[in-house]
Structures are given as structure tokens and as C-alpha cells.
Amino acid sequence: MTRTLRNVVVTGKSGAGKQPRIDVLCEAFGLRQLSTGNIFREYLGAFKKVRGTLDPASLWRGEGFAGDAEIQAALAPACAAAGIAPEAAALGLKAARYVDGGLFVPDDITNELLASAFRAAGGTGLALDGYPRTPDQSRFLLSLTRAAGTGLDLILLVDNDDEAIVARTVGRRICPGKACGKVFHLQFKPPRDGRFCTACGAEVIQRSDDTEAKIRTRLAEFQAKALPAIRALEASGVPLCTVPGNLPVFTDEAVRASVMAALAPVVEA
To answer: Are 56 and 93 spatial neighbours (Cβ–Cβ below 8 Å)?
Structure first.
């Protein structure tokens, strides 16, 4: 089986089990993971380092932000002192207005952040995680890959039952150590003594969004937004491969075998 892929979209309900499948893609095909969660953290972090130097509201113009040149110029002195690119801080500023208010970040700003990270990563050899999540984002991604002279080879959908996802996610625990971040499950992969990370010894925590109410909200959002985004990519000719989120035996070998079997009809033999 060929070991060359350009870009792959990995999607599925929150908690479906995407990360183990992304790990297989990265190992088997040399892809690099590009996660919208990490992208947001990176750009929000860049802005956080300089946000005390100005009020973001001063750059809001009625129904939208000032132009990029004006925002970057306003941030430039503080960015120079902090050694941060004004472009990164400007993107973080735009996202922060919505994230700080607990609001949905509009597609145009999400697209800007993704495009910046996509180009910085070379525009190829990527496993896209968490994007696209709306049909408009799907259309933007297709235009972005065309402009970069690359493309999308396939969509890998990790399919899982809602109730299985709720049970798995509620039991999930995370090591809070910045240098660790190991993931556990109280039933399937328990931390030491039910409380401590087996790698660094820190007491594990439950993420604030791993409650049943929030999980069910995310599941409903997948049906309303992410599923139509997948269909938009399919309609453009991007093949869809589906892999089960639950396996009779959940081992690294079993996960790899199921992923490779799902890709076999699409990936060149």
C-alpha cells in the first residue's frame, strides 16, 4: 500500500476516538496532525502576551474588526518587545473577542486561523483534526488546498454510538502536567490508585467540558453542523472512509488494522 498522502480530514463526534486513528495516519503515512484546538491555543497565547497593551474594543468597527493592517500596526510595538509576530497576535485578538465571551467563533475568523497554520505547515502531509465543522469551512478548505497546489485525499470518519461516547468521555481523566498530558479512563485505562498519572505522578483531573450535559450538546452540534460539512466535502468528490470507534479488542494493532482496512478501497494498492 502506498505511503504517500497529501492531506486527510479526520472527523467524528466528540469523544468518538479520533486521536488513536490520527496516530495511525501519522505513523503509517508520515502525516502531521494539525488540530484546530492547538491552533486556537497558539494564536490566543500569542495575543495573551501583549493584550495588556491595548483594549481590543478599540479595534472594533461597528459590526467587525478594523483591517488587518490597522490591527497589526496597533500591536506592532508590544509584539516587537515580546518577540511575537504581529500577524499571530492579530489573529489571536480576533478570536479572543468571541472566546472570552463564550461565543462561537465565526467561520471567517476560524478560516483565517486555519489558513495561517496550514500555510505555515507547508500545506501538505497533514491530518486535519477539528476542521472543517461547517459547510462554509468545507468550501474554504477546498479553495485553500487548490490555492496551495495540493488537495484532500480522503475523509476518515470515526463512527461511534452516542451512548458509548457519553460513557467513555465522562470517565476520561487528563494529567494536567504541561510536559505530560497523558490521558486515562477510570474503567478502561485507569490512573494509578484511580487518581494519579502513571507517567509523572500528578493527580489527574476531569476536563470541565467532559460532563454529560456538555457532551450531549456537542453530539447535537455534530449532527447539525459537522455532518453537513462532511457531506459538502463528499459532494465535491472527496472520498469518505468510515472506521469503527469501538472495537472488540482495543489494542494498537487492532486500531491500525481497522484504519488500514477502511482506507484500502481508496488508498492506492
So the answer is: yes
pLDDT mean for each 10 residues of the chain (269 residues): 81 88 94 93 93 84 89 94 94 90 87 96 95 96 95 94 87 87 86 93 88 87 91 96 88 93 84
Helix spans in the chain (H): 18-29, 36-48, 68-82, 86-99, 107-120, 135-147, 162-170, 212-221, 227-235, 252-263
pLDDT of residue 1: 44
C-alpha 115/C-alpha 36 separation (Å) is 11
For residue 197, give the amino acid letter.
C
Other C-beta atoms closer than 10 Å to the C-beta of 64 total 12
Alpha-carbon distance 202 to 205, whole Å?
Answer: 9
The overall pTM is greater than 0.85? no
pLDDT of residue 111: 97
The secondary element (H helix, E strand) that includes residue 245 is none
What's at 138, amino acid-wise?
Answer: S
CA distance 264 to 266: 5
Q: What nine digits make up the cell of 50?
A: 501583549
Q: Where in the chain is the domain with CATH 3.40.50.300?
A: 7-31+125-171+206-269
Q: Residue 200's closest CA among 219, 176, 216?
A: 176
Q: For residue 34, how far is the Cα from the chain centroid?
A: 7
Residue with cell 486527510: 8
**Dihedral sign of CA atoms 135, 137, 143, 149 in order:** negative
pLDDT at 269: 47
Residue pair 113/43 in contact (Cβ under 8 Å)? The answer is yes
CATH number of 7-31+125-171+206-269: 3.40.50.300
Q: Tell me which residue has cell 476536563.
A: 207
